[in-house]
Structures are given as C-alpha cells and as structure tokens.
Amino acid sequence: MKLLVVGASYRTAPVAALERLAVPPADLTRTLDRLVAQPYVAEAVLVSTCNRVEIYAAVSGFHGGLGDICAVLAEQADCPPSALAGHLYVHYDAAAVDHVFRVAAGLDSMVVGEAQILGQLRDAYHSAGGADSAGRLLHELMQQALRVGKRAHAETGIDRAGQSVVTAALDLAADLLHGDLAGRPAMVVGAGAMGSLGVATLSRLGAGPLTVTNRGAARAVRLAESYGATAVPMADLVEALSTVDVVVAATAATEAVLTRDVVTRALARRDADRGPLVLLDLAVPRDVEAGVAELPGVEVIDIDRMAAVLADGPAAADAAEVGRIVAGEVEAFLSWLRGADVAPTVAALRGRADDVVTAELRRLGQRRPDLSDDQRAEVARTVHRVVQRLLHQPTVRVRQLAAEPGGDQYAALLRELFDLEVPQTSPVDTVPDVVATDTDGRPSFDAADVPSTGGAR
Predict the structure, then answer these.
(1) Looking at residue 124, what is its pLDDT?
(2) What is the pTM of this model?
(3) Measured between alpha carbons, how far is 285 from 21 in angstroms, rounded to an integer?
(4) Model pLDDT, residue 88
C-alpha cells in the first residue's frame, strides 16, 4: 500500500468551499465507511477542522485511490468532482508523509506553530480507530505524526509563535476595539472543544462578564461553571448579544446561528455609543450568516480574514528548526516503510525454505523407514538449524539494505532469484502528468487542476 493525502485548506479554498467539504461529527463514521468501501482505498483517516478537510489514505494505486477519494468528497460537498479540483491538493508517497508531519508540527496551520492541531489529529485518529478504518500503515503514520508534533513543541521555540487560532482572532478583536479585552463583556456560542478554548482564552485575557450559550444547555452550564461564567439559553441569544462587545462563535451547527435577523434585533437593543460588536466566526460551516458583515456597527472576523492577516507567520528561525526535525523524521519513517516492504519477501523466502526442508524430511522417512522417532527428530532439528543459519545473514542484510533509498530493488532481486510468489498488495505506481478517468466513471483531473507533489517512485 502507498500513502495518499487529498485535502483542501484555508490556503487553497475559501470558507464557502470548506463549508461544503466539512464533515460533521455525526457523519464521520459514515464517511470513513464510505471511503474504505472504495475499491482502491484500504485505510482512511479524516481530518475536518475549521480550516482544513483532509483525508489520509492507504491506497493500492494512485489513480484509483485519487478517483475514489475525490468521488467521496464530491458526494459530501454535493457537487461534481470537477467543481472541487481547483481547491484540492494531492500528496503521494514520501510527500504524503512530509505533509502529515508538517501538519502535526503546526507548520501548515493558519497560526504557524499552534498546538491545537495536535488535539484535532488525535481526535481524527481515534475516530478512525473507532470506525475500524485505520490499519497498520495509518496507525504507524498517525502515531509517529503525533510524536513529531510533540517533539517540535518540546525542542524548539515554535510555541512563541504557536498561539491558538482563538488567541490570534481575539488579538484582532482587541485591535478593532482599540485596546485589550480586559473588562470587556464577551460571549461564547458553542460548548465544544473550540468553544471551551474560547472561554478559557477570554478568561485568561480578563474579559468579562462572560456568557456561554449552546444548543445543549447542560454542556453550556458545565463549561460556564468551570470559568465563573454565566450560561444562558439559546432562546435568549438576542438579549445576550445586545449586552456584549465580543462574541466567539464555534458551534458544530450545519446552518448559521448568528443570522442577519438575530444580529439586527440585538443591535437595536444595544447602546449606539458602545463601539462595534465584534463577531469571531471560527466555525466551518460558518456560524455567522454572510449578510451580517454588511450591517453597520458589526465587525466579522472569519477564517478568510484570519488567513489574510496572519499570512506572514512566525519567526523564520523557529520554523526552520521545526522543518529540520520534520525532514529527519520523514526520512526515518520512509526507512521503516522500506523495511516493512521487504518483510513479505523475507517471509516468503523462509516459507520456501521450510517447504523444501519438510519435503526432504518426508522423502527421507520414505527411504529410511528404519529410523527411530528420536533419530528422525534429531535429523529434522539439524536440517532446520543449517537452513536457518544459511538464511540468517542474508535476510538480516536485506532488511538493512531495504531501509536505504532504492532498497526495494533488493526485495525484487530476492523474488527473482528464488522465484518467490509474494502477494503484491503494494504496487509501485508512477504518477503521470494526467490522472486518467476510470472505466466506471470516476473523475479525471488534469495536473493543472489538482496540485500533485510527486513522491512517487
């Protein structure tokens, strides 16, 4: 199997496209089941956050795997595959490993170095485990990716720039309000992971009084009690909005929560001299209806606006050091992959040797029926020891050589020399300039439409 990453992020797609691709938690297992039911996809992990939707897959072929994954994404987005092509990126083989490790290290985040992505990757990995869609290859990839992310934060100063998306958004809100947020009344809409982070960050910044609302009232109450905030029913959203200066909206709702009508009614009750009402929309799909940004007295900070403001990223030295860590870890993982690829060939060679020994011992028993059971056992032990000693050094050496670049040639040579039949579950593909259309109608993408980052050997 080979690794394939297909995704869209704030770098390649506007919020509207990410909204269509986003997979709600309730649909995650169904989507994973749909992915691994495809002919070329054996394993899958799906990451769906406020600024990226990515699928990490173990596939038996590049073309088929890409077609299968794009078909599922198009079904999720309820649009033709061609409508997605301009927003998708594709990483294959070594480039796929590099991308996943960079994501885990925070190098691909909107706020470079932020640690929240580690929790999101862990959640995606656990979901894949629960759906039984991650096998040996993706288990190893995700475990190593999480370790790489932790190492990047432990061994470098990337944390200096690695504020969360919530913190960065609140910094922008403070600028719009011409000061810090201390003493500013604020509200968080949503009590999930992002909402909890919003309450914690607002509390740390001294904002207050704090209000929390959520469709599930019990979760809002628990979150509010943890930070000395006040929980209000969603039915009182208009009244609550009229009393605050900053709102962090981070629900998992499939439709906008802060609609133009709701915000208009809240503004009508709000003192005109209080300054703008700042709405931080950190949800995908969006919690703030598109028309709200046009209302006078309202400032909306969404993912698109965040991306434009944060384009410069952190200190180059910290990012470069993390990049060096990632590069070393990628090579180590690829060495493990090359070693794993030769294992079936070594097993087949040892199996062939066992078959030969078994056949010869059976023939000996037919020619020498006079041998006692003890004599037969001693002969069998001796022959097995001789064969194992003969095979030991070559198999150890071929594992060592296979871990080096180009090591797959040694496994191929062993198969040729000993005429071994090894199930080919990991075909080596070459990625041509054009991804062809399969006969069953899977989508065709031109290389200009879907960026591909090589890595295929």
Answers:
(1) 96
(2) 0.66
(3) 9
(4) 95
* pLDDT at site 336: 80
Residues 320 and 87: their CA atoms lie apart, in Å, by 27
Instruction: Locate 406 and state its tokens.
Output: 């180009």
CA 33/CA 30 separation, integer angstroms: 5
User: What radius of gyration, in Å, describes the C-alpha atoms of the chain?
Assistant: 28
Report the DSSP beta bridge partners of residue 230: 211
Where b means 16+ CB within 10 Å and e means fewer, 40-67 reads: bbbbbbbbbbbbbbbbbbbbbbbbbbbb
SS3 298: strand
Q: What pLDDT is recorded for position 310? A: 66
| Residues with active-site annotation | 50
- Between CA 132 and CA 138, with CA 136 as vertex, the angle to 5 degrees is 75
Report, as ranges of residue numbers, the positions in the chain whose pLDDT lies below 70. Answer: 160-164, 309-316, 341, 403, 405-408, 423-457
Q: Which backbone phi and psi does 421 adopt, to 5 degrees?
A: -100, 110
Q: What HEC string does 45-71 produce?
A: EEEECCCEEEEEEEECCHHHHHHHHHH
